[in-house]
Amino acid sequence: MCGGFTCSKNALIALNVLYVVVASILISVAVYGQASSVGGNLPIVGGILACGVFLILISLLGLAGAVKHHQVMLFFYMVILFLLFLVQFSVACACLAVNSDQQETIAQQGWKKVNKDVKEQVQERFQCCGFQSSIQPVNSTDDNPSCELVHKICCNNMHNVPNCKCEPCMEKLKETIDNAFKLCGGIGLFFSFTELFAVWLARRYRNQPDPNYKEPHAVFPRQNYLY
């Protein structure tokens, strides 16, 4: 019967298996990012790895509690998952509420933190130069890569228009950054509600009696009974 003990148990196990799969994907992406030259030095890679490890630990706690119908494990699973729901729901709403000016400020801070090689790869991929300054450096400096190669690519695409210049990278990245914030906010909002459902399901399953549980009975010889 759906809604009974077995159904709640299987649903909770399936939900935590899904969390294990998602956490494994996050860890794989983070490991790939650290191994690649593009994302190895990005701070967000460490955050993705930490989220994946934390999620897989919570999922294993939920799996153990669901299989054993362990009251203490299920209680801590509910509390931790509810706190995670509050954090993830707040972050998802913040991502969806960020306006263009705030996105530009965050992107500028990230541009200042990444190394020179990452900036060069961004400039070559999006055919842009600098972040948002109209004065685009041609010679390479300690913080800003050279734009000489990018200028040649831009001018070739513009059929050698006189005084051609590449656009600042912020102009090329505006749509990409906006879509990234909306995608992260939407996915975070979806998974936050699945976590709230998992909390409700764990509470329901925790309060349901196990039909296969047999209460212990002390067995004594009948002659020892007191009448």
Task: Describe the model.
About 70% of the residues lie in helices and about 0% in strands. The chain contains seven helices and no strands. The protein starts with a helix and ends in a 20-residue tail after the last helix.
Structural class estimated from helices and strands: mainly alpha
Number of helical elements: 7
The shape, in one word, is: elongated
Give the overall average pLDDT: 77
Quaternary structure of the protein = single chain
Q: Which range best describes the helical content: under 10%, 10-25%, 25-40%, 40-55%, 55-70% or over 70%?
A: 55-70%
Estimated radius of gyration: 27 Å
Give the gist of this structure:
By secondary structure, the protein is an all-alpha fold. The protein is 70% helix and 0% strand.
